[in-house]
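User: We ran a pulldown and think these components assemble together. Before we commit to crystallization trials, I'd like a predicted model of the whole complex to look at. Sequences follow.
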Amino acid sequence: MIVERKKLNLWERLYLPAIAGGFRVTLRHFFKRKVTMQYPEEKWVVPEGYRGAPYLVRDQDGNTKCVSCQLCEFVCPPKAIKIIPPGPAGRLAERPNAEKMPLEFEINMLRCIFCGFCQEVCPEEAIFLQKDYSLTGTSREEMIYNKEKLLTLGGTVGGVQKWKHKLEEAKEQENFPVKV
Amino acid sequence: MIDWLNNLSDAQQFALFTGVKILAAFAILMTMVAYIVLVERRVCAFMQDRLGPNRVGPFGLLQPAADGIKAFFKEEFTPAHVRKIYFFLAPAIALMPAILNLAVIPFGSKIGNQPMVLANLNVGILYTFGFVSLGVYSIVLAGYAANSKYPFLGGIRSSAQMISYEISMGLSVIPVFMLVGSLNLSDVISYQAHGLFSWLVFKQPLAFAIFLGAAFAETNRTPFDLPEAEQELAGGYNIEYSSIKFALFFMGEYANMILASAMMVTLFFGGWTLPGFGLDQTATTLPGGIAHVAIFLAKVFLFLLLFIWVRWMWPRFRYDQLMDLGWRRFLPLALANIVVTAVVLWMKS
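Assistant: Here's a predicted model for the assembly, 529 residues in total across the polymer chains.
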């Protein structure tokens, strides 16, 4: 395709209309509202469902929900999670309806890719990707978060009733291939 | 102190005061270079709906200091393939023409008994043009010394561009001196010290337009910034430079801009005069003298804003358009302007 190039007339060839137009546009933008966000002072609103750092959560009674099943450890693609289970003769869980709890639970935030597989796989709904996106530290060791730190940062996720969810899921399974 | 000053011989006083003036002028020039970079970054940011550097100090006012410290402490890397002597020489030359030209610019009338010009040369404008044309060497040498293709292209472009525009620039100011009857820049200013309409921009608007265009080309500013066209030359003549050597090119560009603005103010906008406030004539009091320097700097600043504004407004000229404009538009116009002015002056006499 050949685009016909428009012949400029003398007035246009003097560049004067273009000059005036340029001054107008730049001046308008000069006084426009600026889009810059002054970051550490102003922060963006983290949207729902954002996948930030994974933290351990407590239930409504303040108990550790994790039962040390190690599913998240196995599923973690970058192998960022390391769980030390209590072992056969180890300490019992501190809460009812649980056999054991992790002796130590570490997430290496330098390795974590925030994929959310741990949250997805967890049968106890004990780990959630939360809204923290700016993790900093001055050493590699500092970026390995231990159980205590993860629980503190994670807080309590109240209102999560895993058996109710499981039941709903199971019911959905019953009529899964939708019968016509 | 005053007694001691009065006891000095004329030569000693001259040396002393000139030394002080040189220091002051140089300090002001360098401060302006530092801050005009900040102004440029802020203005360009505002035109692009951003805020620009505002973190270092209040309103980012200490940003130039931070930039300077960074430039000094960065690794100074000399690539193995460069031509060493020229590689070191080029940045040294970059700042030189601007600083030397500062000597003949009258940046004020008088403070006390001292004329506010470093060297009241009778051939001020010739001196200026002589050193302005040296400015091309830093770029050409940088392009040659780098010994790689993009800087080389930048250097070639720059030499062609500067030579073409220097001719128009030189020819454009000839009518000014025909009117004034002297090549001394102080005389040019005293010629313009009779009200607003004695300013030469109103008597020689065409000469001013050509000089302005040529000044943009001489200082390598957009729309004529072909030697350092980032997009097609990956940075242009200064690619191979780092740390303070790079900063010297950068400073040279801005110092040249300031000097070009100062030349335009002196030649066409009445220098340190301000009509209507009784500030037209040589100052007799100290506040008057300082006011004149302030007026001069304010006028220069306005031109610098124009330089910056234009840079963030227009795209770059294509190379053949640049040559076309220089040789086929500016040059004939400048020549015609000389002839017309000569004829008018001859008719009048």
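The first strand of chain A starts at residue 54 and ends at 56. That may be worth checking against your pulldown data before setting up trials.

User: Thanks, that helps.
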